[in-house]
Amino acid sequence: MSRLRIYNDNNSHECSEFTEHAAISDQLKKVGVRFEQWEANQPIVPGASQDEVIAAYRADIDRLMAENGYTTVDVISLKPDHPDRAAFRQKFLNEHSHSEDEVRFFVAGAGQFTLHIQGKVYEVLCEKGDLIGVPDNTTHWFDMSESPYFVAIRLFTNVEGWVANFTGSDIAERFPRMAPHPSAANAS
Fold first, then answer.
1. What is the pTM of this model?
2. Positions in the chain short of pLDDT 70
3. Torsion-angle region of residue 109: left (phi > 0), alpha (psi -120 to 50) or beta?
4. CATH number for the 3-171 domain, one of 1.10.357.140, 3.40.30.10, 2.60.120.10, 3.20.20.70?
């Protein structure tokens, strides 16, 4: 189940929590973040190849690219036995921003986006079917847990794809990390 927790950025122990998709979307919309529920009904599982995922969701990808001017698409598809899972996780765990919007459509499993906006921390657990659009220059980090289990389609306007501007802040270390997805235990 998708979930949003909102903290003050100086207190990682008290938060407001939302689990209904409409409420999550409404709260994130207030800070300019796109959050939608889409159909993720293709038989894709973590570990699927980029070509397989793109082929299965070609119509959705083409529509998003046409609507928003995205020029590049890629896929992150990880399961708990991936040999580089720790390195991939570490790459995204520190607070950073991008000079373009970051859009992800989760087609399997789950991942946790955490956004740092105007003195608040928005922890968004994204599940299969969730589309999140983080505006350019929004500081955030992403956690896939120690046992990643997800497939996400990423869209970019920059032909280089994912380019991060790290803030150097340790804020990400002060907030909860993602627990492993329940399906990860059976995926290795």
1. 0.92
2. 158-162, 184-188
3. left
4. 2.60.120.10
